Amino acid sequence: MAYEVQLYCTTGGIAADAGFDSLVSGASADGTELRLSDRSSGDGWVAAQLDPVSGGAAGCHVQFSAGSPLVAAMVAGVAADDPSGRVSDADSIVTLTLSGEVDWTVVSAVWRAAKALWEVVPYDEGSGFAVDLDEL
Questions:
Q1: Is 128 inside any structural domain?
Q2: Exposure b/e, 116-136, CB count within 10 A at least 16 = b
Q3: What CATH number should be reported for the domain holding residue 36?
Q4: Taking burial as the number of CB atoms within 10 A of a residue's CB, which of 5, 43, 58, 86 is the most buried?
């Protein structure tokens, strides 16, 4: 069974491919060497499986979505529940889909990179906007 975390990001209007590349580069900058596989893209999104270069599967699939009606609909769908009011400014979404044996160093590196690059509001269906990396 997969578990998803959305990071609602205010990026200033970055394109999906540039956002994805910045995110992966930022995640690698902290010393976590990542290997991308199964990279795919479409109108307004880029996704790939991220695993540690050292081997093994991380159980972490990352999708960066930006500049699409789907992003606007997802933001609108949760904005009323955000106690900070910041999610309504989001123009991009990073979706972390976690399954199987999860390498939390990869998840942490991606999450921290997003927070370093942009204003981020995390969300999951279980904890809502109370989700925190330290409790995963």
A1: no
A2: ebbebbbbeeeeebebeeeeb
A3: 3.30.160.690
A4: 58
Measured between alpha carbons, how far is residue 4 from residues 14, 94, 124 in Å? 23, 10, 6
Mean pLDDT across the chain, nearest whole number? 92
Domain limits for position 20: 3-123
- Segment 102-131 mean pLDDT: 91
The structure tokens 């989001």 sit at 90
Task: Map residue 61 onto helix, strand or coil.
Answer: strand
CA distance 75 to 93: 9
105: nearest Cα among 9, 22, 31: 31
pLDDT in tens, 93-109: 999 999 998 888 899 99
CA angle 118, 22, 66 (to 5 degrees): 65
Interval 39-94: pLDDT, tens: 999 999 999 999 888 877 878 999 999 999 999 999 999 999 999 999 999 999 99
* pTM for the predicted model, two decimal places: 0.93
State the total domains in the chain.
1
